[in-house]
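Throughout our pipeline, every protein is held as a single compact record rather than as scattered files. Nothing more is needed to write down the fold, since each code stands for a local backbone conformation. For reference, a complete record is included directly beneath this paragraph.
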Amino acid sequence: TTLGQRLLDRIDKYSGEAIAKNYEGVNKYQADDFYKRRMLDANNFVNEYTKLLFPSVEDIVRLNNDVRLISSKRSTILGILLNNPIDKHLFFEVQRHLVLSNIAAELSERSRTFNLNEQVNEVQKELSTNLFKPPFGHTEYAETYAKIDPSTNSVISVYEAQTESKPGDIIRHFQKRMRIIPQEILGGNKDQSVLCEVRTKPRTSEIIKALKKPYESYLSGGSDFIDVRKDVRDTMGLMFVVKGTMDSFEEPVNNTVSAVRKVILNKWPKAKFEVKNHTRDDGTQSKDQKYQRYDVFLDEVVTLPFEMIFYGEGDFLNSEISIGEKKETVDSNGRRNVLFTGRAHDLYKIKQAQKIVPLVMPSSVPFYNGILNLKELANKTLEDTAEKLKLNKQTHFS
């Protein structure tokens, strides 16, 4: 069957109207731009995913250039697929691309609908006005020296100055500009330095999470329905790191949590804070991950919260650099499985991504099953990342 140009034009017209109808905040004049941006999200996901998990063979497994051509317009997809014989591997990539772009569209629609960015900006403004030391936006330079356990790359203790360390200690230096909470607000006898930063989950991480949860449900006999609104909630928020503390439940951290909550409740009396301190037991996250974490709903109407997370300084640094102990097992097929027990987020991202390899690059596609041992390549990436974390002696907050 050959699709004529007039029919292809009608496909673009009517599919554009369908996009405008199905995605809130998109009109028919914006539909083409919305479509192209979501296709770009899908492009970026595949390339960033392969760079994260398989950097040594990135040029081999990255997105086929023909996918960009085929997905440039809705009509082009149908025109090429129906009018031309197509390589089986390319056909899989096009199918994958359409699924990924649809997930990206749902994520984008949700961002438009709930406008978390505006909520977080308003909270930041309120904290800068009524919590942190004036003038508005004031920061002060701060340094931390951390004693490291060389076997696990974990922080054992934190110091205000290098002179507090002892001979033989392995020390790493961290520096950042911090906000100041005045002592009269905290009720103590000194001001408190606090790192306060906006955390935004990258679109690639959002898509990984959107795929991972239903896939795990499917493997355990449950539904494989992708529900972005339910499964991908922590897309944006605020992070606080309380200087001079090792543990996230020390008194200065608790006082900071109370002060932040008080400011928010003074402005938004109906705000609700849901405790969210659980950790994952799926091999992707250290079970001793430490923080105080909350989902924050500013009023009764808000159904999608933003996240607030509070760290002691030592716990935060461990979430950046701790690799823990290396554990290695071998499955029934003789394939290695590598796990590090530390809290470093770089390792966690790799393990999360590794969980969905069977979806993104399934063994049923001969190309992925034939020339590449994806499992071993991901293990090697994990090992290389752990080694880089150990070698990076001069690290900054990130």
Remarks:
- The mean pLDDT is 88.
- Residues 327 and 339 are 5 Å apart (CA to CA).
- Strands lie at 140-149, 154-159, 171-181, 192-200, 236-242, 272-275, 292-297, 306-312, 326-330, 336-340.
